[in-house]
Write a structure and sequence with these properties.
The protein has 129 residues and is an alpha+beta fold. It has one domain (33-126). The protein contains three helices and six strands; from the N terminus they run H-E-E-H-E-E-E-H-E. It has a three-stranded antiparallel β-sheet, with helices on one face. Strands 5-4-6 form a three-stranded antiparallel β-sheet, with helices on one face. The radius of gyration is 22 Å and the shape is flat. It starts with a helix and ends with a strand. Mean pLDDT is 87; it is low at 18-26.
Length: 129
């Protein structure tokens, strides 16, 4: 009887330890944010990565872009990932994010092709995860 209680206590302690370790490692995972800003009139860009908040990444990208144009806007933002922007031959553009550079570029070209042809990726950037 005492052996059974001891075994149950050990199992409970191990289970609790495992759950605490799993939840603390997930909670301490750091999020990194990035963004790409774009000016449709001048094709100026600004980008940012490894910021602590989406707001900070967006503002940094806009600030860099606005050094060259007044109509900059956020083309895409991302968290623990990559972002890309593609521009077409007639000024159309598209931007997107992905979990890899390849995926972000593919999505950006696909989005651009809805508005234009001859879409080429002009900028990509990733967080350092």
């Amino acid at each position: 009887m005492y052996k059974l209680k001891t075994i149950k206590l050990i199992i409970m302690a191990l289970t609790t330890s495992f759950l605490i370790a799993a939840s603390s490692s997930h909670a301490s995972a750091k999020n990194y944010y990035g963004a790409i800003a774009y000016s449709p009139s001048t094709q100026a860009m600004g980008w940012a990565y490894d910021y602590n908040t989406k707001w900070a990444a967006n503002n940094a990208a806009l600030k860099k872009c606005r050094k060259h144009a007044s109509d900059c806007r956020i083309a895409t933002w991302f968290r623990n990932a990559c972002g890309a922007i593609a521009v077409g031959g007639n000024g159309g553009w598209g931007a997107h994010w992905g979990h890899s550079v390849k995926n972000a570029k593919w999505k950006a070209r696909k989005t651009c092709k809805r508005h234009d042809s001859y879409c080429k990726v002009r900028r990509w950037v990733c967080t350092t995860r």
